[in-house]
């Protein structure tokens, strides 16, 4: 059957994962085209995944040069052979663009294409052509002819133009695919395809408009014959190790090296044991450890230093000649890669040293391919080529895959946590490796909402000011700089009654006007100055926070400085002097006035606005610009004030609580001093005021308006909004994504969307990211787990509504047989007839309040006694909490037949292989048992834990089960929307 495009599905996104709902014919291929553009100088790391954990392979990538004006553009092509989604009506495809921090910072455009006629062969990429161009009207990417037969050639061009219709696909013989675009910032993905037997060229045109381009064309096919399966009752097994990769690369982007020949093969022994899931007695996802037996008789997996050397002369495809002086850390069996003199990989292949011989000052290193296939490098090594050793260290990715009846399945994935070695004799060794999962890498503590929003934008300097009382300085938490923010007293003294210190609470600060002020969700403290009077200010007394250093970001490239101030005393500024909120200076007094460059200050006599003053670097003249009405600090507002200023050498924009104003300036290229809350440096002193300061940060770029708004709202509501109304608030699925981003987690994720809206997060939300995410998703009876592909999955309640029974287990026709054992019966663990929901909401003024909702089943209480299930939620709509209470009551008010554990051994029942290789946490099963002389026992169960054990002649899947919810009627659904012949919603 010829290859054809059967369907296309498109979607766009920004700082949220892009979800594309597809329903391909099972067995057809999916190809995803992803275009992204980021304008903040970062390159978003893209990842493709799906809840059914199909194998997505990155085929090609093109990344355009970044510019301050147009940002960075990239295009990628991913392929998913033989897609399946058993048990679901559709397949959500997730494109995660990690590092896009706001809706106006980056844009993502996705087109998922269904290809029919590809067959079940092995994916082979024969050619990749990439190209980037700046301000031109066209792009061409020549693709060579395939080695034989017909190849699929697919090309995509990502552009930054604002008019999608201006970009056309003009390649001869190509058929245009659906164009996808998003504005603000603009990105357009224009793709085309053809089935080619000869050389071809993918071309695009923008008419007369010059745009920036990042394009990629890839030629791929399937191998005509399926992989050979020598044993019809046993799948092909493949052990992959991501040599050269660690935690910073998502598992879906790893280029794997086949290490199957290293699987130990002791008869009857478990060579790979890889449990995963949610222990029913724990209730939350738990990190699981795998064990992998790796043959290590050559010492290749013995931790040691990796070597590096540069070739001095031409070698061959299996040798490289290097100076002997550079071989101290190069050993026989070492893994390595080859790079050009410029540090670019010559190919992705990993090689292994097989011999080392030295003559004079030159050492010849002989090598072969590390995957065990014959041959060496694609081309001969030459002078200047670099031998780059791959360290055997912690967190090397690993993966086990098995092939059954035309499809590869991922059985287990993770990272090698430990590599303990054992030796039976001098020639035979083994590394009994310990594998860790994604949850084990999510050990970072949960950050408060404001701290998280700051950190995920990579500040060069960040002072939370949560330091203990008496410390005297604010520690720098950025991870980039160690420069501290010192508490410095004015040279004219502190003032008659003035004090300053760290440790002031940022919660429940008395405003003096009948309400309290809090940075909601911030359990920390701040630096406080108090006791100043107008007389002190007139005498230039007080304290300031001062930092001096040489590592502040360049003004020429753009800078953003932010901070939060609480309980500002404007009565001082209404007297005879101005109060300095923030000041930057230069160590050179010749630039500006005495080194002064830019100041954000509260003026006198009016306190209703904040002003900006700048000094011309040449004339030293000062220019003052007032903010609009309502930009004063403190006053009658019950919220903390977040201030920010972005500036480069020629312009600035200031923000107070979301309001902004701008101006021109003429500044030098750098600064070396910052004062906060007053002035107390080598140039000036005083201008201090009473108030609490916290979360002061400096960024090496100009943050966008949306980013400033997110930071403003994070300080007030603990929930960054994309707009000023409820539509911008986080849903549970988006809140989990945000939490992963705040700790810069780069793993693969598949987070099914949820409509439930989260309310604010307060100081009680602590612990690890996994714990916090579990608590949040518990508000809708969702599940968090790590699947066999190593993806961090969140399965929302709404998504699970559409779930069908995955398989029937038992001894009847068409059922999957399982081993004897297991217990059947009612379990009081799952009986609750009093469900109490404590839903905490933000009620204003920095205060949180909980509303209790209770659902009770009196009949169940009379039969089984009162059994209470309590759950804490944080939902914006109380109605959602009410629905949750009754949903949980409907699930647990009455006993359900529970099957605790099922063991399946597909080696003795080959028909069970497809099920075992694809079963996942959360799947719904029917487990049947037919006792002789008694009625059949049938239990509807949900998979909580999957535990495969694999060896040379061992294959066992142990499934831990829990009670599954009853089927849910869904209005409009062709199957779940029909009950008793009645069409719901008709």
Can you characterise this structure?
The relative contact order is 0.10. The longest helix is centred in the C-terminal third of the chain and has 15 residues, at 878-892. Strands 18, 19, 20, 21, 22, 29, 30, 31, 32, 56, 62, 63, 64 and 65 form a 14-stranded mixed β-sheet that branches. Strands 33, 36, 39, 41, 46, 47, 48 and 52 form an eight-stranded antiparallel β-sheet that branches. 8% of the residues lie in helices and 41% in strands. It is globular, with a radius of gyration of 31 Å. Residues 720-728 have low confidence and may be disordered. It is built from ten helices and 67 strands.
List keywords for this structure.
mainly beta, 41% strand, 986 residues, eight-stranded antiparallel beta sheet, 14-stranded mixed beta sheet, globular
List the helices and strands and how they pair.
Elements (H helix, E strand, L loop, with lengths): L3 E10 L4 E5 L6 E10 L6 E5 L7 E7 L8 E9 L10 E8 L7 E11 L6 E14 L1 E6 L7 E9 L8 E2 L5 E2 L3 E3 L4 E10 L3 E6 L5 E12 L13 E6 L15 E2 L13 E2 L2 E2 L11 E7 L12 E3 L8 E5 L11 E5 L11 E9 L2 E8 L16 E4 L6 E9 L2 E12 L2 E3 L5 E8 L1 H4 L7 H7 L5 E3 L9 E2 L10 E5 L9 E7 L3 E2 L5 E2 L7 E6 L3 H5 L4 E6 L10 E8 L12 E7 L10 E7 L8 E5 L6 E5 L14 E7 L3 E6 L2 E6 L8 E4 L2 E2 L4 E2 L4 E9 L5 H13 L14 H11 L6 E3 L17 H9 L5 E4 L5 E4 L1 H5 L3 E5 L14 E3 L7 E11 L2 E10 L1 H7 L3 E6 L4 H15 L4 E3 L1 E4 L8 H6 L5 E6 L7 E14 L4 E9 L14 E2 L2 E2 L3
Parallel strand pairs: 53-55, 56-63, 58-60
Antiparallel strand pairs: 1-8, 2-7, 3-6, 3-8, 4-7, 5-6, 9-17, 10-16, 11-15, 11-17, 12-16, 13-15, 14-15, 18-19, 18-29, 20-22, 20-64, 21-64, 22-32, 23-28, 24-27, 25-26, 25-28, 26-27, 29-30, 30-32, 31-32, 33-52, 34-35, 35-40, 36-39, 37-38, 39-52, 40-49, 41-46, 41-52, 42-43, 42-49, 43-44, 44-45, ...
């Amino acid at each position: 059957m010829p290859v054809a495009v059967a369907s296309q599905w498109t979607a766009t996104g920004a700082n949220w994962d892009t979800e594309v709902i597809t329903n391909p014919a099972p067995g057809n291929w999916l190809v995803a085209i992803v275009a992204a553009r980021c304008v903040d100088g970062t390159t978003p790391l893209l990842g493709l995944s799906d809840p059914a954990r199909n194998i997505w392979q990155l085929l090609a990538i093109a990344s355009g040069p970044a510019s301050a004006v147009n940002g960075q553009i990239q295009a990628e092509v991913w392929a998913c052979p033989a897609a399946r989604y058993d048990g679901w009506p559709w397949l959500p495809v997730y494109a995660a663009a990690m590092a896009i921090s706001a809706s106006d910072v980056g844009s993502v455009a996705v087109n998922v294409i269904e290809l029919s006629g590809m067959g079940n062969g092995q994916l082979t990429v024969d050619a990749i052509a990439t190209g980037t161009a700046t301000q031109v009207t066209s792009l061409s990417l020549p693709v060579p002819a395939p080695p034989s037969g017909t190849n699929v050639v697919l090309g995509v061009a990502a552009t930054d133009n604002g008019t999608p219709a201006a970009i056309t696909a003009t390649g001869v013989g190509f058929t245009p695919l659906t164009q996808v675009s998003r504005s603000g910032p603009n990105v357009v993905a224009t793709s085309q395809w053809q089935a080619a037997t000869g050389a071809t060229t993918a071309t695009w045109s923008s008419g007369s408009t010059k745009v920036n381009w990042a394009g990629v064309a890839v030629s791929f096919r399937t191998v005509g014959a399926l992989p050979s399966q020598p044993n019809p009752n046993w799948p092909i097994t493949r052990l992959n190790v991501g040599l050269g990769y660690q935690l910073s690369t998502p598992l879906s982007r790893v280029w794997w090296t086949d290490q199957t020949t290293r699987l130990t093969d002791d008869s009857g022994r478990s060579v790979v044991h890889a449990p995963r899931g949610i222990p029913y007695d724990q209730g939350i996802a738990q990190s699981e450890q795998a064990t992998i037996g790796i043959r290590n008789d050559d010492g290749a997996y013995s931790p040691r230093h990796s070597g590096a050397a540069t070739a001095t002369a031409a070698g061959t495809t299996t040798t490289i000649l290097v100076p002997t002086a550079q071989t101290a850390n190069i050993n026989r069996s070492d893994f390595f890669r080859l790079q050009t003199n410029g540090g670019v990989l010559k190919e992705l292949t990993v090689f292994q040293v097989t011999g080392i011989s030295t003559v004079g000052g030159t050492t010849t290193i002989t090598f072969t391919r590390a995957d065990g296939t014959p041959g060496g490098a694609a081309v001969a090594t030459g002078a200047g080529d670099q031998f780059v050793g791959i360290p055997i260290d912690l967190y090397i990715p690993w993966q086990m895959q098995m092939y059954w009846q035309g499809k590869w399945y991922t059985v287990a994935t993770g990272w090698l946590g430990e590599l303990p070695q054992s030796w039976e004799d001098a020639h035979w060794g083994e590394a009994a490796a310990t594998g860790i999962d994604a949850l084990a890498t999510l050990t970072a503590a949960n950050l408060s909402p404001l701290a998280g929003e700051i950190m995920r934008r990579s500040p060069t300097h960040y002072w939370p000011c949560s330091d203990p009382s008496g410390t005297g300085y604010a520690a720098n938490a950025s991870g980039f700089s160690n420069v501290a923010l010192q508490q410095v007293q004015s040279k004219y003294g502190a003032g008659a009654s003035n004090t300053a210190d760290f440790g002031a609470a940022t919660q429940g600060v008395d405003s003096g006007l009948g309400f309290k002020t809090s940075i909601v969700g911030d359990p920390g403290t701040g630096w406080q100055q108090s006791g100043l009077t107008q007389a002190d200010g007139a005498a230039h007394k007080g304290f300031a926070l001062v930092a001096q250093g040489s590592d502040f970001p360049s003004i020429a490239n753009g800078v953003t400085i932010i901070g939060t101030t609480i309980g500002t005393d404007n009565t001082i500024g209404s007297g005879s002097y101005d109060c300095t909120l923030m000041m930057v200076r230069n160590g050179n007094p010749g630039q500006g006035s005495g080194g002064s460059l830019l100041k954000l200050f509260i003026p006198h006599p009016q306190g209703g606005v904040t002003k900006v003053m700048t000094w011309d670097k040449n004339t030293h003249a000062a220019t003052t610009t007032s903010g609009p009405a309502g930009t004063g600090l403190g006053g009658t507002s019950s919220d903390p004030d977040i201030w920010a200023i972005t500036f480069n050498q020629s312009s600035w924009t200031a923000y107070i609580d979301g309001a902004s104003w701008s101006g021109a300036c003429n500044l030098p290229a750098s600064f070396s001093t910052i004062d906060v809350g007053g002035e107390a440096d080598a140039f000036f002193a005083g201008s201090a005021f009473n108030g609490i300061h916290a979360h002061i940060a400096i960024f090496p770029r100009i943050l966008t308006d949306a980013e400033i708004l997110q930071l403003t709202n994070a300080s007030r509501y603990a929930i960054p909004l994309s707009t000023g109304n409820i539509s911008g608030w986080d849903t549970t699925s988006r809140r989990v994504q945000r939490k992963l981003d705040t700790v810069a987690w780069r793993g693969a994720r598949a987070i099914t969307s949820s409509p439930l809206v989260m309310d604010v997060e307060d100081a009680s939300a602590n612990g690890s990211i996994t714990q916090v995410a579990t608590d949040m998703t518990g508000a809708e009876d969702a599940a968090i787990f790590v699947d066999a592909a190593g993806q961090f999955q969140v399965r929302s309640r709404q998504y699970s509504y559409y779930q069908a029974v995955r398989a029937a287990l038992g001894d009847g026709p068409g059922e999957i047989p399982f081993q004897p054992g297991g217990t059947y019966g009612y379990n009081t663990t799952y009986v609750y007839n009093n469900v109490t929901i404590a839903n905490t909401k933000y009620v204003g003024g920095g205060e949180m309040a909980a509303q209790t909702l209770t659902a009770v089943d009196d009949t169940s209480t009379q039969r089984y006694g009162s059994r209470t299930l309590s759950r804490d939620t944080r939902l914006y709509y109380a109605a959602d909490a009410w629905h949750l209470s009754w949903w949980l009551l409907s699930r647990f008010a009455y006993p359900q037949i529970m099957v605790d554990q099922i063991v399946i051994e597909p080696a003795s029942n080959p028909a069970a292989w497809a099920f075992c290789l694809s079963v996942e946490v959360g799947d719904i099963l029917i487990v049947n048992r037919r006792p002789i002389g008694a009625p059949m026992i049938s239990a509807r169960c949900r998979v909580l834990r999957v535990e495969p054990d694999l060896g040379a002649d061992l294959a066992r899947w142990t499934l831990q089960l829990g009670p599954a919810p009853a089927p849910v009627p869904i209005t409009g659904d062709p199957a779940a929307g029909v009950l008793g012949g009645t069409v719901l919603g008709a």
